[in-house]
Amino acid sequence: SQYQIAVVVGSLRKDSFNRKLANAMVKLAPPEFSFKQVQISDLPLYNQDDDANPAESVKRLKAEITAAQGLLFFTAEYNRSIPGVLKNAIDHASRPYGQSVWAGKPAGVLGASIGAIGTSMAQQHLRNVLAYLDVPTLGQPEAFIQVKDGLFDEVGNISADSKEFLQNWINRYVAWVKKHAD
Ligand code: FNR
């Protein structure tokens, strides 16, 4: 397809709500968009000493981001910020100095948690990091998803209650990516 999107899920948990949300959301996008979740679970802890000799998993991550026309982040919230595993991935792909692969890639940020504020603090921290990395990030609509019974149907799709909101979110995201890619 015309637009390849790298999806970054900020949780390693097998039954991650954020991964479920990612899997359901990408189905709402038009056919000219394709999505690939990048693997971050096998990245080493970032160590600047390894910049000259990056691990295969780091090279893979950077190649996948480079190949993408857009980015989609789904972050969990840990202690009112982004999980360390997500920051670790972002740091890896931002280095060595001058060789960041993030700059200029249009992005969207979402997150899900069972808490009432639905990852809003984590998303704000993530936006701060992305701004520094020169990633143009969709400002509105915001998507602070509180996970409740019935968010997903039996087969993992977004259920009717939330579908209109998230469909609108994806439509806005699609327009955002096209605007920056063209
Ligand atoms: C959490 N959780 C959490 N939730 C939240 O809304 N705000 C928070 O600050 C935190 N802090 C936090 C810290 C740590 C260390 C853990 C393990 C959990 C709960 C969190 O939202 C919940 O575990 C989600 O299910 C995590 O997302 P995934 O893994 O389901 O995608």
UniProtKB/TrEMBL annotation:
Signal sequence segment: none
Highest taxon above the source species: Bacteria
Pfam families recorded: FMN_red (PF03358)
Gene3D superfamilies recorded: 3.40.50.360
Coiled coil residues, start to end: none
NADPH-dependent FMN reductase-like domain boundaries: 4-145
GO cellular component, one term: cytosol
SUPFAM superfamilies in the cross-refs: Flavoproteins
MF annotations from Gene Ontology: FMN binding; oxidoreductase activity
Name by which UniProt lists this protein: NADPH-dependent FMN reductase
The organism of origin for this protein: Nitrosomonas mobilis
